[in-house]
Amino acid sequence: MIDKTTLDELSRRLADAVPTGLLGVRDELEKNFNAVLQGTLSRLNLVSREEFDVQRAVLERARTRLVELEARLSELEKRLPPA
């Protein structure tokens, strides 16, 4: 998931984009942006980069094993007498 530092930075950038007429409420807007971003992101079904990388490695091993088993099965099928 996105870390707190990244969320704070994004909230700050959004607050920096506020028109000059609203600079008096900039801090409040920044807090609201942060709360909205955290709430929205928490509802999304996201995984960490580490978990993604682990699952990717598991999938790569499974694919490799599948290719090996398919080749082995094909070889065994060739050895069977014709039906």
Automatic annotation (TrEMBL):
<dbReference type="GO" id="GO:0005829">
    <property type="term" value="C:cytosol"/>
</dbReference>
<keyword id="KW-0830">Ubiquinone</keyword>
<keyword id="KW-0831">Ubiquinone biosynthesis</keyword>
<comment type="function">
    <text>Required for efficient ubiquinone (coenzyme Q) biosynthesis. UbiK is probably an accessory factor of Ubi enzymes and facilitates ubiquinone biosynthesis by acting as an assembly factor, a targeting factor, or both.</text>
</comment>
<dbReference type="GO" id="GO:0006744">
    <property type="term" value="P:ubiquinone biosynthetic process"/>
</dbReference>
<protein>
    <recommendedName>
        <fullName>Ubiquinone biosynthesis accessory factor UbiK</fullName>
    </recommendedName>
</protein>
<keyword id="KW-0175">Coiled coil</keyword>
<comment type="similarity">
    <text>Belongs to the UbiK family.</text>
</comment>
<feature type="coiled-coil region">
    <location>
        <begin position="52"/>
        <end position="79"/>
    </location>
</feature>
<dbReference type="Pfam" id="PF04380">
    <property type="entry name" value="BMFP"/>
</dbReference>
<dbReference type="InterPro" id="IPR007475">
    <property type="entry name" value="UbiK"/>
</dbReference>
<keyword id="KW-0963">Cytoplasm</keyword>
<comment type="pathway">
    <text>Cofactor biosynthesis; ubiquinone biosynthesis.</text>
</comment>
